[in-house]
## 1
Amino acid sequence: MNIEFSDEDKEIGRKLFLGDCQFIKSCVSLDTLPSQNKSEVAFFGRSNVGKSSLINSLTNKKKLAKFSKTPGRTRQLNFFKIENKLHSLNFVDLPGYGFSKVSKTEQREWRNLIFDYISSRQNLRTILLLIDVRRELTREDDKIIEFFERQGLGWTCVITKVDKIKKSEVSSKMINLKNTLKNKITLYPHLFCTSSEKKTGLEELRAYIAMFAKN
Ligand SMILES: Nc1nc2c(ncn2[C@@H]2O[C@H](COP(=O)(O)OP(=O)(O)O)[C@@H](O)[C@H]2O)c(=O)[nH]1
Ligand SMILES: [Mg+2]
């Protein structure tokens, strides 16, 4: 479960992310989403996993995706676009899950919004599921993964905050995770290991995301 990205792929990714990058809009319901004329890649995961930080690091913009001051309270889908002369792509920072202080009703609303978005969005090419390197997969993660697989939606596992633990621990974590995920069908067969803090693993991830950009 590993893909080698060529220097050429990395260069395409680097150039895309050096392109013009802008916030498009925040949406709280599906009737206001931006048009579907561009490929879209979604960033998803538990609140606090590092979604906004990763978007900022990938784009080299410190404040593009805002940190939420009250974790778990952002129920918006935040859309961005990135383009250079050759390629263009939208990406979306989805509201996180797994925040204990959220009521059952709010959780249900969140679930409906996300699941409706995922199942109806025609231009959604893949979901990047972010997982904090220090955490195990939860029941909630499992349910979400099951949902992707049932939908036949391609998804990608991105490990975050690898600077938080020792390199040797990261390796054994990766082995365990690969083993846990080995029977998944729609999972892209590469685990991306990233740190937004130390800017590691970003080249491969940029190369990968750029594969979904339109010419
Ligand atoms: N050490 C470290 N901290 C990180 C990293 N990425 C995010 N964080 C921290 O984790 C917290 C949550 O990050 P944020 O991007 O807001 O998560 P989100 O809720 O998923 O959008 C913030 O305090 C970040 O500074 C990383 O790669 N390394
Ligand atoms: Mg965020």
## 2
Amino acid sequence: MPIKQRQKYRDDYYATVIDSVGDGVIVVGSNGLITLCNPAAEQITGFSQRQAQGAEFNKLFTLETTLIEMLAKTMRTGITISDHENVVVRSTGKITPVAVTCYPLVEGNGENIGAILTLKDITYIRELEAAVRQADRLSTLGTLAAGLAHEVKNPLGGIKGSAQLMEREFTPDSDLREYTRVIIRETERIDHIIRELLELASPRALKLSPVNLHKILGDILLLQKKAVVDKDISFIKQLDPSIPEIMADEELLTRLFLNLICNAIDVLDVDGRLTVTSRVLSDYRMTHYERHSRMVAIEVSDDGPGIPQRDLENIWTPFFTTKTAGTGLGLTICHKIVAEHRGMIKVESDPGHGTKFTVLLPLVR
Ligand SMILES: Nc1ncnc2c1ncn2[C@@H]1O[C@H](COP(=O)(O)OP(=O)(O)OP(=O)(O)O)[C@@H](O)[C@H]1O
Ligand SMILES: [Mg+2]
């Protein structure tokens, strides 16, 4: 092969290698100008290769002071610097947490001719860390609650039994009989909460079988539509027909989506919209777990009042409720069901415009 052709082949080969790297790579010359920016870097920073190539790094990334400082230090000292904790990139308009390493670019003769920045998008890692922290918090609360529930269960049985005996002592038209009925009704309510709590805190084996998510969602929506005809809510389904059956506990998933859909219906007024969508996230890897898996995402969104910022942190906490007749256990149970399926649940809410719950479940068959 002639030398020129061989050189071109090598250049193309290296360019393909850099473009194929999943992390963002930005190369800056010692004059501060960007000489290379790969597609992953385009995605993270929001700047296209055409915008970046030849541009002055410090001008293009004015907002990213940490990157500018790291780059300057590597250029000055020739040492490699990493920061996997504190860096975020804002250029795309949204805040992306990134792990950054800045390597010196050194020629064969030892001359420092610039620096290479590698950027790794760690949004998902941050989300997983948050999910783990939340799970820890909930499991402590769950253990506490279970202890309490055990203590309350026995005296409650005594109260209910005595009230039932007392009820028989009064004549049907006696006021006292009505009072005992109230005692019985309210102890039953406490009993229901306690059973839910105990279930929440106890480990349980999933009854796994191939589950058709769309059938579950379709059945729930059909039933709920009938239950709230007078509210005239629009139920919108945008389901990806290519989603296969997943191995899951059908009863628990039904409970999960019923809770989310009922919560949405509760906050919707007449003419509200409730949307359920499903899709496969092919690039979502939960490397946190031993097995890499594709995920299916199911979103339940409403255009209701949204959740105030101050409540967002608390909605997963047992007994947090803003409803007069709510137990505040619905979302705690949802959280547990999703964790048992090795998935993830998250919420986004725009006060005044609505709320979106996203459930991610591994697509294992
Ligand atoms: N779609 C939503 N829009 C607005 N707020 C919501 C939504 N979903 C949940 N919430 C808030 O989160 C709180 C907790 O929900 P959770 O399902 O755990 O309990 P609950 O609905 O109040 O009671 P329960 O589920 O026992 O009936 C609710 O009281 C409400 O304030
Ligand atoms: Mg609820």
